[in-house]
Write a structure and sequence with these properties.
Strand order of the largest sheet: 1-2-3
Order of helices and strands: HHHEEE
Number of domains: 1
Helix content: 40-55%
Radius of gyration: 14 Å
Length: 118
């Protein structure tokens, strides 16, 4: 597995964590764990390398959810909408992962390009 792909995946997810103010020590640890595990996964299935970035984002999202935090929250549906998350699409995480609002189904941003929360 090309380490560059793992570093790019890490940078994209870290950018989105920072954009939403979630780049805590726990979140970065979850990111490092996800990158390490997906590196092993991609070594086992080299054709899956194009899915790594989206899968790393999903892994971090799952780890944060398990620790009681929802990331990233949707900021585009207005104050009257119930709190809800974004999710990575397509489900397998690639090859061009985007964040999608779970309520509206609208594409919010490509992975790594979330805007800062308002």
């Amino acid at each position: 597995m090309d380490a560059t792909l793992l570093l790019e995946a890490r940078a994209l997810v870290l950018s989105d964590l920072q954009a939403r103010g979630q780049a805590s020590a726990d979140a970065v640890n979850a990111l490092e764990d996800a990158v390490s595990e997906r590196g092993w996964w991609a070594d086992q299935w080299p054709e899956g390398a194009r899915y790594v970035a989206g899968l790393v984002a999903q892994d971090v999202q799952d780890a944060l959810f398990e620790s009681g935090s929802r990331w990233p929250l949707c900021t585009g549906c207005g104050v009257d909408a119930p709190e809800h998350s974004l999710y990575i699409s397509p489900d397998l995480g690639g090859p061009d992962p985007v964040w999608v609002c779970e309520e509206s189904g609208d594409v919010v941003a490509p992975l790594g390009r979330l805007e800062h929360a308002r």
